[in-house]
Fold:
Amino acid sequence: MTKKLNVGLIGYGFMGRTHSNAYRRVNNFFDVPYEPVLQVVCGLVEAEAKAFAEKWGYKSYTTDWHKVVEDENIDVVEICVPNNLHAEIAIAAAKAGKAIVCEKPLALNVAQAEEMVKAVEEAGVPNLVSFNYRRVPAVTLAKQLIDEGRLGKIFHYRANFLQDWTISKEVPQGGMATWRLDVKAAGSGVTGDLLAHCIDTAMWHNGPITDVCAMTETFVKERMHAETGKVEPVGIDDACTFICHYDNGSLGNFESSRYARGHKALYTFEINGEKASIAWDLHDLHRLSYFDHGDDSIVRGWRSIHVTDSDMPYMDKWWVPGLQIGYEHSFVHQAAEFLQNLAEGKSTSPDFREALATQYVCDAVLTSAKNKKWETVKKP
Ligand SMILES: NC(=O)c1ccc[n+]([C@@H]2O[C@H](COP(=O)([O-])OP(=O)(O)OC[C@H]3O[C@@H](n4cnc5c(N)ncnc54)[C@H](O)[C@@H]3O)[C@@H](O)[C@H]2O)c1
Structure:
């Protein structure tokens, strides 16, 4: 028997669309105990919220997120707004007893993230943070191969996330379109926005990061603020590179930039183990590169696994072997697991506490860059 689950979405932008799309499709592909009902959408501009509600099938709309959180009819609150609003909304939603799906990064900073973990754990509400790349089948397959011991001892885990959309000095900071460049709304630049994804996936694959040594740069020091119209100092990191140790003895190096001309969203990782290596590239997300040193030497080499067979993660739910899926499906997988766990009153990984671990690494990275010293990462 499928039960109805009333969804309240806060934020109808990029992520509002991915979450709505996932809830609309999940029952068509996954047997889960709930059927999401898109009840209310909330956003800043009334006409846009209304248009979104009509397009995506929400029954009502509002511009006041408190109304969503306080609505007794709502079972789950989806937080898809800029980072500076996550804490206040999540804490209010936890107090109101709602299940919560929060976009990444969990919060602006560690202090807020700790408060959020406390709030959901005290209220005992199921929670999830949307580090969706874990649920790209090839990335999940990488986890399976590591857990099966196919790589043996891991020596290196490196990841990059490269973009090029802020190179022009004319791009403003702040406001609806460019809040990511305003430190008050975003908390940090590429570290919280892009590297948080890489760090979450890396710790899921390879275990905790213990200490970091980082450098950051802000290439454009001043930008016009879209809300005030004044030229103001830029407080975010435009680029960040760090090296680290993992608890298992392996070494990591990470790089992110929004100044890598030619790259739009190039998230890559490579993992080198004693017996095998793995590499993945978001631009070719349905493939996993794999090198197995155990192969006969005359056929040994990097192979490109097309992650579409039905015995590969999630793929039995989709089409037939050979036909691939894409970015949006990671959110459908996330929704499916969230709904399944919800029926048992459980949170879904990565929950707020796991996202706090990522926030601790981001915080250590920014502190290390500022102090020009190695920084130990706090444990959740
Ligand atoms: N998981 C991912 O891969 C991924 C990708 C992009 C963004 N994100 C995260 O998702 C969140 C939202 O990012 P986005 O790209 O969807 O942003 P966006 O700018 O596209 O949308 C933001 C939405 O928030 C709404 N909003 C802003 N202030 C509000 C307020 N006071 N009350 C109610 N609504 C308000 C706006 O109306 C808008 O609909 C951020 O935390 C971001 O880091 C995650």
Observations:
- The mean pLDDT is 98.
- The two ends are 38 Å apart (CA to CA).
